[in-house]
Amino acid sequence: MKRRSFLKSTLALSTLSVLPNNLSADKELKQSQAEPLTLLRPARLMKGDTIAIMGMAGAMRDPKILSGFIQIMELQGFVVSVGQTVNKTYGYLSGSDEERATEFNAFVANANIKAILFIKGGWGCGRVLDKIDYQQLKKNPKIILGFSDMTSLLNAIYQKTGLITFHGPVGNSSWEKFSLNSFQDMVCRGGDSFQKPELPQLQLFSAWQNGKATGELIGGNLTVFCSLLGTPYWPSCAGKILFLEDTHEEPYRIDRMLNSLRLAGVFNEVSGIIFGQFNDCNAEKPQESFTLEEVVRHQLNGYSFPVIWGAPIGHVKNKWTLPIGVKALMDADGLSVKLMQPAVS
């Protein structure tokens, strides 16, 4: 057989062998997005409750981070259970995919564990999304809280189970007064209001496009959120209020990711967008670049939904803890967000 004919035959056979898997994945994606979600609310945290701390993404290199995090949680009256993955290193990960998924699933199945928090972000959650026991999460709903790389995990859990998750600090975050109060307000007190706080970092907190919008809150880190596009873990954005943040990404990269969302039809579906803090997202060569604000405005050109810019969300010292999956009222004119239903039971 001639080489060209052989290659053609091999390619055809390869295509046929791969096709069913591709069709299966596509079918799963369409089914997961079409099925209506039944909202699950985790129980609020109370003093004496046990929370688990584990590694789900990057490896922790400084043991002081763990001891400091434990102290903070114990001062709130919680009992802390530390997972083995916190002290594991596997390349840049806090343990192998199997180790991290197994530990997470074990914490989920443990009825005594009321919340799962994470030691740090980095990268790694996306590698275990297909290893999470989502059915067990439906049976044992609990508070799952983190941000940055946890964006994929939080949104995947909401998409697969309807469980409300929480976009908030991790172990190596700065748990100062503002962040700690927002955390407590959301997961302990069942708060429902987010107002513009008087913080120096929020001098750019403003309404870019006026108006009000209602919808379930969804989103997180822009880079990680975009990585879910085309997967069965991508949440429907129809009628949602999307919140986004990022760090250490040049404007052209932000432009590229927002362009992906635009081409995927996300901006045609959402009811509003809240942009958080984009920490150190400046061009290496400013004279040869658009600014961050310019590329965002380029991508939003022609859309009429309300837009808030510069909210306390993201890789900054003072941050809100936002529930993913809860219906909220966004008021761009008043620079506020108010939950229309409780996030915890």
What is the total number of structural domains? 2
Low-confidence stretches: 1-26
Say which CATH homologous superfamily of the largest domain is assigned: LD-carboxypeptidase A C-terminal domain-like
Which percent range fits the helix content? 25-40%
**What is the CATH class of the largest domain?**
Alpha Beta
Q: Strand content of the residues, in percent?
A: 15-25%
> What's the overall average pLDDT, rounded?
90
- The quaternary state of the protein chains shown equals single chain
Number of helices: 10
Q: Please state the second-level CATH architecture of the largest domain.
A: 3-Layer(bba) Sandwich
* Rounded Rg: 21 Å
Major sheet: size, sense and barrel closure? 8 strands, mixed
Number of strands: 14
Shape: globular
Would you mind describing this structure in some detail?
The protein is α/β, with parallel strands linked by helices. The protein has two domains: 50-187, Rossmann fold, CATH 3.40.50.10740; 193-339, Glucose Oxidase, domain 1. It is 34% helix and 20% strand. The protein has ten helices and 14 strands. Strands 6-14-13-8-9-10-11-7 form an eight-stranded mixed sheet. A six-stranded mixed sheet has the order 2-1-3-4-5-12, sandwiched between helices. Strand 1 (50-54), helix 2 and strand 2 (79-82) form a beta-alpha-beta unit. Helix 8 packs parallel to helix 10 (292-300). The longest helix has 32 residues, at 3-34. It is globular, with a radius of gyration of 21 Å.
